[in-house]
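MODEL INPUT / OUTPUT PAIR
PAIR INDEX: 1
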Amino acid sequence: MGSPLLVAVDDDPDLLRDVERELRKRYEPDYRVCCLSSPDEALVALEELAAAGEDVALVLAGEAVAGAPGAEVLAEVRRLFPHAQRALLIGWGHLGEPDTGDAIFEAIARGRMDQYLVRPASPPDEQFHQAVASFLLAWAEARRLAPHTIEVVGETWSGRAYELREVLGRCAMPHRFHLAGSDEGRAVLAGAGASGKLPVLVMPDGRVMEDPSDADIARASGTAIDPSGDRYDLVIVGCGPAGLSAAVYGASEGLRTLVIDSGSIGGQATASSSIRNYLGFPRGLSGADLARRAYQQAWVFGARFAFMQQVTQLARERDGIVVGLDTGGVVVARAVVLAMGASYRRLGVEPLEALRGAGVFYSAAASEAPLVAGEEVYIVGGANSAGQAALHLARYAKRVTLLVRAARLDAGMSHYLVREVEEAPNIEVRTSTEVVDGGGDGRLEHLVLRDRADGAEETVSAYALFLMIGARPHTEWLPPTVERDPAGFVMTGADLSAEALLGFGRPALALEASVPGVLAAGDVRHGSVKRVASAVGEGSIAIQLAHRLLAV
């Protein structure tokens, strides 16, 4: 078996020649290029490649091939090569045409293709290659072949090995997991010369870490600092989209900025395998990719990050807002942005909680997907994150069943995602359904489902369960002086009670909490819109309000 293949299909010889020229000049010898002139020829070739165990990374097809839509060719690819990226080639003149846009949306919604790109212009066409490179990176990440991937070897799926995978996922660090007794696991350990305590991490630069702590991982990735005793213009608690946005805008506008998080970058957004409705990314991007980009952006502007450190105290004193850490350290800020976000609510079924990491996962669909290949998978949730997870897992699993408590899927999910989920051939949606029990011998084996309409219960075989339900704000550590609603979300601005405003002597700012100088942004805030874009927007607004506070 040779290098992965890039396949192009078009019945116009001149247009096919242009595509072949660009692919060969830029991507050989890392990839082999195969250009075909008819749908029938392409299907036969792809069948033969699949039978031979070859790997296809990308298939490009013309808008119309032999009188039929090119999406029909691309639709056959998923069956043979589940991880291959599939893109429709369109002419520059068709970009922006309503009919073309509608056809592309319909084909993507029906799972017939992944994306589109504009045909290459005269070389060098870097826009064409930027799109191709993004497709190849998505393929590499799906195949666990992405650059700088961390190897994880553990004795079991659960326990500390699972905790480490969770940490790496929160850090948006690509990683692969192997059981120590598997051929792959033994090979990784032998190659690294590791013989000590499991689990073992082999870092991209060759360093070996045996049973590392979370702080060890942060230090190894170069993201750990000890901010104790320092003074900052702005301290941001939380490093999800809202916190990262505040860090970018705060640091870029000259504020001495520190971001503190008990985990690492991205927050709950790292669970999103594909965000297609985020402004400026027409082909979509993963939550982990968005987090990495934002972190690097803030870092270059001068923001500093203290990861794997928990904020435990918050108090306004004479010389500023004092932020206490679980390490015993103290940081003083002129203004604070609370951006801790929220996490998925626990299911509360004890037999399933005991199997966390051994078939039961809170989120983690992006990182655990390769481990469920060919199996029966269930997802609990009805929001966008659950829909994105279902589509991602469907590339690996035999069948994905989406369990939704509501009577309708569109009650909490965006229209475009509802269309894609409903059209996916191996995704089943069960509304008005909840998980009430389950279990297995050391690993998940079955679930008990209840129909909320009539109370009927059913036991089903299950290899994995992904839970994406509700939102629990990370506000349990806040002092009573920070007013919250009954669910724990931070009250701000016009929602503050009259009692909370007594100490202000002025109207509270729009995102200001009940402690003057403390702002809240993103999912942790009462009344926020639970979308990545709105969290990013609130993070930027918080900085404009912080400037007003600091100017007083």
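PAIR INDEX: 2
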Amino acid sequence: MNQLFKNMHWTSSLRNSRATLFISSHKSLKFCNFSKDHKDQGSWESMEGLFHCSANLVPLTPLRFLERAARFCRERTSLVYGSLEYKWGETHQRCLKLASSLSQLGISRGDVVATLSPNVPAMYELHFAVPMAGAIICTLNSRLDASMVSVLLEHSQAKILFVDYQLLEVARSALDLLCKRTSSKLPILVLIADSDSDSTIDTSSISYEYEMLLANGEKGFEIVRPKSEMDPISINYTSGTTSRPKGVIFSHRGAYLNSLATVLLFRMDLFPVYLWTVPMFHCNGWCLPWGVAAQFGTNICLRKVKPKDIFDNVTNYKVTHLGGAPTVLNMIVNSASFDRKPIDHKVLAMTGGSPPPPQIIAKMEELGFTVSHLYGLTETYGPGTFCVWKPEWDLLAPQERSRLKARQGIPHVGLDEIDIKDPETMESVPNDGKTMGEVMFRGNTVMSGYLRDLKATKEVFKDGWFHSGDLGVKHQDGYIEIKDRLKDIIISGGENISSVEVETVLYNHPAVLEAAVVARPDNHWGQTPCAFVELKEGYDDMDSQEIINFCRDHLPHYMAPKTVIFQDIPKTSTGKIQKYVLREKAKALGSIS
């Protein structure tokens, strides 16, 4: 078993109502207290009749969702992928057999099993099968290069790597690099094939093929259940938009609670039809592989996210829910007319990952999608807040409705608290919609910590709150609104400029497809906004000065970009704009004299 997880345990003092995480090799080392100290208000530990046993105390785990679906909705469709279709009873049996096969390969409690795959059925099944074997699933970003995959395999100490056939060469190269750096045993390579797989695939380095491995498992496998609900269920590496990715540890308890919270904020009734446009490797698909099972829903798997495939699946399967970053929504609203199909039923599109431009929300709703906005981070299991829509807002003008929907809103039911604070004084900012502070979380759906990075864990849990690194404001009604990342704020002549506000104005220009704003060094002002703009088709002759003038007409002049660069906008595989890449480009331009 991985040494970190051997030495991780949670203690709780009922008398002081405290929960503290300890990691140690020989003796306990306290590094975070999640609650404020307070005087003993009396003890109930000896209350007569108080009794805990298996009848009223069972560790929370999302594995129960699959067992429940298989028991009560055995014949309902669980998953569709092209011509492939499974029922919940079949999915349960397949996951049990796969867990059994993992056990036969020597996987036991606390071991890490990695994946490198798009949203195919195997990725869905592995979210249950791996923890059923007592192991921890580590879903690697399917668009990483071999070098980074190698680094993450070494850091996670994964014992098995499940790889999709289209990513086989990346995996092989990663293992070659890993072999040169370490004498440790390399992960076992398991190939996930597909109906359209090339029959000429070189399988010489493959230990097992997914379906054959699964077939060798036992249907009656006894699930290795968590000893504690705080046992790790997954490791998610952050997207790396600002720095080297960190391994975020999710627990069974947090995954269970955030699955249910996400279902609620997504307004997912029983028997939803969910289209997988959010990568399952990203925050475990916002915890929805487990959440859809909780609602006896149908998963529509999608290998590639393209507008035509989205519209085809929405209409063919009567999809009720889908999700994605604002860039996915932007792709949909700017899709070719021949790729679209009329939508004659309600489809809820949930967006998050970065503040969505109000214009994109408005255009999505014109196409027939109802857009809701959520906010969170990998460290909060994905969704942490959502913009609760108030019925009285229906009477507002469309532009005002879209502006309100772009806010990040209020915490979901799984969180204890969210606040915007001055990170130095830890005082809450006023609810004036203007004063910026750092967004901070605490509650049961905040990560357990960063894998093998105690220093970084202590830093983000300072003062008993998780520090997000995002800057925001609180409105009079308590709703929060993200203004920027701490690293993305532009300080010009002593004034703070929100790159998000400048980007929102840029999206109003008819020629702008996508935009990102970062700081460029300026000899006089210190920094000034530099806009990177991707143009729509037919606007190739656009002049940068016209973009600058447009911004000056709609913003205070000091906020308008002084530099405009026309180019494609670099993004992570989850649709987040890679501003650190753009910052380097702006820096390379040199200071404005």
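PAIR 2 NOTE: The first strand starts at residue 8 and ends at 13.
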